[in-house]
Amino acid sequence: MPGDFLRRTPQLTMEQFHAFRDERPKEEKWELIDGVPMMMPPPTLMHQRIGRNLETLLNARLRDAKPEWQADRDVGVCLSGDEKYNPEPDVIVIDTAIAMGQIYAQRFYFVAEILSENDKTAVLEAKLGYYQGHAHNRCVLLVRQDRVGADQHDRQAGGAWRRRHLVKPEAAITCPDLGTIGRLGDLYKFTPLDPFAKG
Predict the structure, then answer these.
(1) pLDDT for res 2
(2) How many Å apart are CA 122 and CA 128, to the nearest integer?
(3) Partners of 165 in the beta sheet?
(4) Which positions ≥6 away from 35 have C-beta within 8 Å?
(5) What's the rounded Cα separation, in Å, for the pair 24 and 6?
(6) Cβ contact 38:46 at 8 Å
(7) Fewer CB atoms inside 10 Å of the end CB: C or N, the chain?
(8) Domain count, the chain
């Protein structure tokens, strides 16, 4: 459940949020989380490389395991009938087939957020609940950028979610329907945290 921070904040409808966002400077990026507009801070270079590494690993695996799915970065999600959420995950797996002029994903199978020190616990909990509530989603990955580590949440066969805390660079990142995507340490390639970099 979202924390007191979100419950105390005035709520916007999707229409109000889009009108608000359209009035903001174009360089600002905003998400609607449980009815609350949240400005996304500019990403660090670490954030960008971790996201690119994960997108690359996912697409390499998807080519063999699920070619009808594709990993993308910075794609907004807007589900039909939902008035409280319009997030933009850092990495998302959606259908390969898209429509001309399509802006938002309306179905997703895997999402990842690359965490920053500014992330509020209540916002992360609200996002996690939203991502886990989407019937088609199989996995939520929350990746650290201050150290090697991630929390992986997988949907189990009965619908319950299992959490794995990954800290070892050799730990496998897996996803239901895909199998092993890569190692945790692979997400940090070409960053100061790369555990496999040669001296």
Answers:
(1) 43
(2) 10
(3) 151
(4) 6, 9, 11, 12, 13, 83, 84
(5) 21
(6) no
(7) C
(8) 1
